[in-house]
Amino acid sequence: MAMTPTKSLLTAGSVIALVAACDQTDLSREAGVYPDQVEFGAATANNMAFHTGEKQYVIDLAQRFSREVPDMVNFAFNSTALDSEARTILLKQANFIRQFPEVRFRVYGHTDLVGSSAYNQRLGLRRAQAVVNFLVSQGISRSRLEAMVSYGETRPVIDTPNRERRNRRTVTEVSGFVADAPLILNGKYAEVIFREYVDSASRPHDADGTAGLTGLTD
């Protein structure tokens, strides 16, 4: 039986509703686990990223970053100031980021649940911007850093309406690769991810197995 225009529209609407239902995200997850928005062509781009290896290597590098470097700094109440502990952590982040000029990073700002949502959104973003500005002061190109997203009070570490330092934080994450980097244009993502490991393995080793000490004198 031929499908009427009305039935066709209803069928299309049902498909769209089904897809939308399957695309619900778990807001309890940490910042950046899911994309912030889905745009036209995102599915194709995602598929290509998996086939070229880019997607997996972004995940691999993100995991390496979280293993080797503290990715979170905390703030005083209603403040964007970076204390000595935060600066120490960000220096470690900067050292890691400098090793990978082909990689982009994103900083997410968060607050505790005290205050209005609108104010906390602005405060979270300002915290992310403070971190980006510090990393830029350490020689990182601003074009590789994003402070465009603030989750404000919506993703607390500790679910409490009271002041909570652990909720007042920024989280730095790997967000992707610089599109025009030579190695990336050649699809050599693995060379970026494992560069330091390969370099350390190729350095001269002493009899005790230590690397990079050959030629040093007292």
UniProtKB/TrEMBL annotation:
Residues 62-178 form the OmpA-like domain. One of its GO terms (cellular component) is cell outer membrane. Keywords: Cell outer membrane, Membrane. CDD domains: OmpA_C-like (cd07185). Pfam families: OmpA (PF00691). InterPro entries: Bact_OuterMem_StrucFunc (IPR050330), OMP_bac (IPR006664), OmpA-like (IPR006665), OmpA-like_sf (IPR036737). Its main location: membrane. It is found in: Cell outer membrane. The keyword Membrane applies. The keyword RNA-binding does not apply. This is OmpA family protein. It comes from Maritimibacter fusiformis. The lineage of its organism: Bacteria, Pseudomonadati, Pseudomonadota, Alphaproteobacteria, Rhodobacterales.
